[in-house]
Amino acid sequence: MDTIRQKIGKKERSFVVLRDHVWNYDPIFQHAALGMALISLHGTFIMINPALCDLLGHPQHEIDSTAPLDHIYKDLLSDIQRFGESLPNERMTSGKFECRLNHLSGRELAVIVHVSLIRNEPLPHYLVQFENRTSLLEIETKLHSTELALIDIQNSYHELLEKMPLAVLITKKGVIQYANPAALQLVHAKDRSEAVGLSTNTIVDASYHMALEERRRVYDVRKALNPIIYMINCMDGRQKYVEGFTLIITYEGEHAAVGVFKDITDQKQREEHMMQSEKLTMAGQLAAGIAHEIRNPLTSINGFMKLMRSSKRSSETYFEIIESELKRIELIVNELLVLSKPQGNHVNKAINVLPVLDQVITLMNVQAALKNIEITFESPDVSQWVVGETNQLKQVFINLLKNGMDAMDASGTIRVSVDSTEQEVLIRVQDEGSGMTPEQVQKLGQPFFTTKETGTGLGFMITQNIIHNHGGSIQIESEPGQGTAFTVKLPKTMKPEHT
User: Fold this and answer.
1) Could you write out the DSSP letters of every residue in 428-496?
2) Of 254, 265, 263, 243, the residue nearest 178 (C-alpha)
3) pLDDT tens, 441-498?
4) Residue 377's closest CA among 360, 389, 390, 392?
5) If you average pLDDT over residues 62-82, what whole number do you get?
6) Which of 354, 429, 436 is nearest to 397 (CA)?
7) CA–CA–CA angle 133, 136, 141 (5° rounding)
8) Are 125 and 153 in contact (CB under 8 A)?
9) pLDDT tens for residues 258-287?
């Protein structure tokens, strides 16, 4: 019994010597940021540093003895003991293994346990370091979950694109990168490889290349892409009309354009048939109006010719009336010829509307002065660019100024002003004439409807036709006795580079 007590006393004194040795000569152990412990070869704690207390959630001042920790972490100590016994039998060896520890709060910690077997001390022991990997593993888990979620989203989007009934094309710098089955069917491609790599200029018909380039220039300035209609060339030589919109996305790490299109060829054909039908109806109305308008002066001419034939002497008055009626017929025919001319053939040039308006006002000032009418022009400092044909736009502004002067009996002011939005240029012509009722405004543009005694009603019809073919619109504000304001709205374009 005394021999056993002597052995135990000797071991306790060795522990004290080891503890004193570490405390006095190894301040790194006490102040290390990494959790560290000295563990006996029998699997009991000899000493733990403050960092390990913090890691496990045990306040250091409450740890009077390591014995309670031996019970709490007996599984960990057994693992360390078994791992240490597996280390090579050398003077100093080390290794590591991963394990899970429970924080005092119950939270599970993921740690890497670094075990060093030290044999050259007063008492051989294990120096164990605990590397906390919990936060890193949580981040890795979250990243992995996020990656899986992104893959799921990507797969879902891809599946959605593949099953969409609308054609979807993804392009980079005008080159097709992806086409869904509906797009391949639209262009009659046999497989995806036949479409991928093609330039959009190959698919889009050459007649729309200018519109395509203009759309790209507008996007560079406004970062917005409006819906558009194209004619496309299919792989089998057929042509189709498509309508669609475009979104800018990031595709495979680069900016790309996603175009979603639908085939409107049948719809376009139906519209053309309807337009043709409307044209035939309009032609019938024009023919009836022409017959009516020309028959009146012809009746007058015929009557006066009979009078002249039966009269013994010719009357100068008869000749004046006949000449006047012939001029009226000539006016009707000339306006019909202007109306019949195609308006869309030359709408292909960027025009600054300010000098065009200035020229028209200078031209009309002579006629205005004869009626004691002043034409004022409020011009902005910045050029206002539209796409169109100069002479046709001049015809529009001349017609509007003539209408204003005809609506004013004598004297007054016609105000011309120009304004703009991000999308449009607005030209406003306001007179001080007799004005119109809402019913008269509604009828404007119908063949041969006019509020003037000598008008044909074709001038405003021509004006509307030109504005429509320039992609614009015209707004009318009028009240009886308060004058009329015509506002022409034309799509704004960018200043051409060569100007």
Assistant:
1) EEE--S----HHHHHHTTSTT--SSSS--SHHHHHHHHHHHHTT-EEEEEEETTTEEEEEEEEEB-PPP
2) 254
3) 776 655 544 555 544 456 677 788 788 888 888 888 888 888 889 999 999 888 776 5
4) 360
5) 85
6) 429
7) 115
8) no
9) 889 999 888 888 877 776 665 555 555 555
What does the block give as tokens for 196? 């991928």
Alpha-carbon gap, residue 357 to 312, rounded angstroms:
55
Nearest to 228 by CA among 246, 240, 213: 246
DSSP 422: S
Q: Rounded to the nearest 5 degrees, what angle is found at the Cα of 202, between the Cα atoms of 199 and 207? A: 130
Residue 163 token pair: 């099953």
Local structure of 263: helix, strand or coil: strand
Per-residue model confidence as pLDDT tens digits over 220-245: 777 777 788 889 999 888 899 999 88
Task: Work out the percent of the chain whose per-residue pLDDT is above 90.
Answer: 14
- For 342, other C-beta atoms within 10 Å of its C-beta total 7
CA 257, CA 395: separation in Å to the nearest integer?
A: 40
